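Exercise 7. Given the components listed, write out the predicted structure of the assembled complex. Treat all entries as one system.
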Amino acid sequence: MGVVVGPRVIDAGMSLLSVLISPVPVAAGYPSPAQDYFDGRIDLNEHLIKDITSTYVVRVSGDSMEGAGISDGDELIVNRALEPKDGSVVIAVLDGELTIKRLRITGSGVVLQAENPAYPDIRVPSVSDLVIWGVATRCLHHV
Amino acid sequence: MSKPATMRQMPQIAHVDVNCFYASAERAFDPSLEGKPVVVLSNNDGCAVTRSPEAKALGIPLGEPWFKLAPRAREWGLVALSSNYELYGDISARVMELLGRYSAWLEVYSIDEAFLGVKGTPEELLDLGRTTKAAVRRNVGVPVCVGIAGTKTLAKLANKWAKNNPAFDGVCHWDSVPAADRESLMRRLSVIEIWGVASRLTKRLNGLGIHSILDLSRADPVMIRDRFSVVMMRTVLELQGTPCIPMEEERIGRDQLIFSRSFATPITTAAGMRQVMSVYGQQASARLAKHGLQAKVLTAFAGTSHFNPKDTSYPSVCVPLPMPTADPVLLTRAAHAFLPHINEGIRYARAGIMVTDLRPTGNQAPLSLFENPHEERHVGTLLEDVTRRYGRGSIGLGHAGIRGGPDWTMKRDMLSPRYTTHWDELPLVKAA
Ligand SMILES: [Mg+2]
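Answer.
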């Protein structure tokens, strides 16, 4: 549809997304036609972010998602344009706080699950009873 | 009175405006602010520049100094925040880029307002308004209202109506509202409520028997031109349904300066865009210096032409400046940071920059209060040349006044994190 969406060359130091790209700063040059088929240096923005306008990066605080490989201090890439589905890892607004949970949509209702047995499930009648802030697409786990 | 189908397909203008923008941008990342009275304070924590609806309901006037509010803040549960222009600049850029997906023609009017060219039946237009509103809310996270009408002036009026009357649910298509209702609205509203009428002219208008917007819309445009100005005549014509307000190339808001224009010949290369951005950098510098101001955040944007709906592109980017500045070199360099965001070969029909986070020039007196000798004598260009040849830092400006005082002179006790532009200030999500 001709809409230009998504990442292009990002000037190092200019946006938070520059942190995601290779450690060598990308020169603030011009995207040249050659870049369309140049397949050299990997641009993480291109691979990790589908819709840059609708994407935010957030940081995890707490251990309730350990079972999903999401640890305290990890960064998450969150796409607000995505429709939350059964199984999505979502950022939901709970008691005025951005909270990360696994969304389960079943025949008997909707559940927000932690991925850690120490934390109880939260049940609501339907998705419309929730405020979903965004859907996490990637975890930048600190190894 | 039904219009022929072709009439209903005439191009219209949608005015999109973020509801209490600064407060909404803060709420997008701190949902605990939802439902609470919130004010955002001007630089130096001076006075309330944005009020949430709850703060308005408390009777807090726009521009109320913080020292008057502070003693009652606890009792009211009032949350006051310092202005976080890096956050607002980035959210603004996202809103504009997203809006560009819904129209083949978009004009950024201010940090939180844009005009979109739209076409369709009244039902389609309402539908587009609702879709746009929902998309900005969902994808970016801030609420907007949409006014759609045949002219910019009426679109802005429709937007105001949509904001104030819950029955519209945030989207008002002017022509779809019964004529009697439109008339009674225009009769109720004082003439100063319309876009383009300066309040200092109210007395003179009243002297001619023009009190309400309805009165003005029924005035003779030629008489208005002779007694006032072409600008005021255009407002009258627009109220009568004739689009005639061109985009001003330089717009001065309460806390922002915008420079933008459309090009007779589209820009298709980064080199061309570089020149345009350089011109804006110089213009912004001159204007800031004239007002004794410095800026800390710059937003640059561009857009394609509606004649070429195939390759639409509305890139927009927020560039935090290294220090508060009115320096043409720094402003131009910041504007050039936009260049990697444009696509070579795309035909850009308009572009602009906006500077925000304005504050008075630092403690040191500037070289001149009313002109920028730096600019007049092409020091900027000279500096740029030298810098290019001998590297950054090889030459600097001899007077600290131009570059301004250090940032610590700014009082910002209640500053929220720069959630979207700083890696060490990302929003925290609770895993508990
Ligand atoms: Mg607004």
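Discussion: Residues 270-290 of chain B form the longest helix (21 residues). The CA atoms of residues 123 and 245 of chain B lie 26 Å apart.
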